[in-house]
Amino acid sequence: MNNFSYTQAATAKEATGRHKDTPQAAYIAGGTTLLDLMKANLAEHPQLVDINPLPLSGIEQTKDGLRIGALARMSDVGEHPLVVQGYPAVSQSLLLAASPQLRNMASIGGNLLQRTRCGYFRDAAFPCNKRVPGSGCPALAGDNHNLAILGVSESCIANAYPGDLAVALAAFDAVLTLENAKGKQRRVPVTEFYLLPGKTPQLETVLEPGELVVAVTIPAAAHAQRSAYLKVRERSSYAYALASAAVGLEVQDGIIRAARVALGGVGAQPWRSPEAEKALTGQPATEATFRAAATAALRGAQPQRENAYKVELAQNTLVRALQAVSS
Amino acid sequence: MPDQLLPPAGSPPSDDSRRTFMKQAGGLLGFTLTAPLAGRAERLTAYSTVLEGPSAVSLRINGQAKNLRLEPRTTLLDALREYLDLTGTKKGCDHGQCGACTVHVDGRRINSCLTLAVMAQGKEITTIEGLAKGEELHPMQEAFLKHDGFQCGYCTPGQIMSAVACVKEGHATTDDQAREWMSGNLCRCGAYPNILAAVREVANQ
Predict the structure, then answer these.
(1) Statement: A1-55 belongs to CATH 3.30.43.10
(2) Domain covering A222-326, topology
(3) Minimal CA separation from B103 to chain A, in Å
(4) Is residue B91 situated within a structural domain?
(5) pLDDT tens-digit profile of A302-326?
(6) Are A51 and A71 in contact, with CB atoms under 8 Å apart?
(7) For a designed S-S bond to B112, which of A9, A104, A293, B101 qualifies (C-beta 3.0 to 4.6 A apart)?
């Protein structure tokens, strides 16, 4: 890691002020993404601003839904009774991720900002349009077995967000609260937070320089309460998803009244699927319906040399997840 | 953007500049204003202090205060191994992927390789060296010996630290649960069945 200076911020104003003084500074919360990248020389910052003293760890019911502070830890949120009862898919997405040690360290805000696991991004010896715009994408003709099939572009086929939490948050209409250097806050739905790679894969979110993620709020809903997160991976634990599905259903008399679907592991960003939701709503909660939704969700997939298996895998994962919440 | 009041990079602010005065005054002021947080004052450095280069870092390890001089980029793992001669905690991957560096911070298991020492100030840190009470081994250490829960021993301190926390968390009530909640600790020798037996025995005590 480069020899950075270190300071703490006790308020959001101080944190964003520090960033304004040193625009190349980085905020550090749990450090599990930032220090990993800095050790690999994939990130370099002259200053780290420790934002842990900020009072952003609360988990509380509000009129807009469950508000989770950006500095709450994955382990605490995943096991919090309000999350387990109101949003099982969110709880599962947290507890199926990483390791117990990492979950004790990692913050909710930091989780949303983790980087892709693409092997070419993570090795500075390779060209990479995300790291060095215009340098090329070796993954297109290389090892892309773990990369995306939805929302990709000729510039980048990475799943920019390889994690789980944002997939569940996208499914259940979660909204992020962001705060900039002027102290102004704005609310951005998770589904609008991430950017598709297009011609600019180096731009991954709508965050302005120095802007802080302050909280995430998830509206209460019957379809959020009856939800699940299914994660399929090469190992039985402690691995990223090859494909995953966050689903929620509101069923009455065997008919689906409301549905929420988001896929992980297969999209260039957390993949909310209005196509699947349309195929589910108003239909009987049967396997035939679930299969139709899975077909709709993966329509338009662009399989690469080594990840065509993900089309069928993602479909089956979605069907299994829907079966789990409707049984 | 030129700023004549900034001291040269890397040197301590000893130039009597107004910026330095304001930083120090702000420090006292900030401390006063945050009086209700006095409980955290010990781990909060004074408002607006910037640590640069080798700096005074005070850590509480196994109940003892240790005063070190560390760069901000020194990890807790390296502070333990290289500066405190506490080599029980191991460096396996240095990237938070193997769990060999597992220690307890305020009673919670974490990877010390992805923790900055400077950020661990004001917290209670427990390492493998701190588990035994003199010659009396911790029940988890006894269980690992009884069940032969290791071969080369490199992952073992991390396994034991993780296992102690796992049981305390209530995450070792069944074999499957214990496997899942110990999955952050890798063992290339494959001692997993015996590690599991040790963890489950202590969970059932």
Answers:
(1) yes
(2) Enolase-like; domain 1 (3.30.390)
(3) 9
(4) yes
(5) 999 999 999 999 999 999 999 999 9
(6) yes
(7) B101
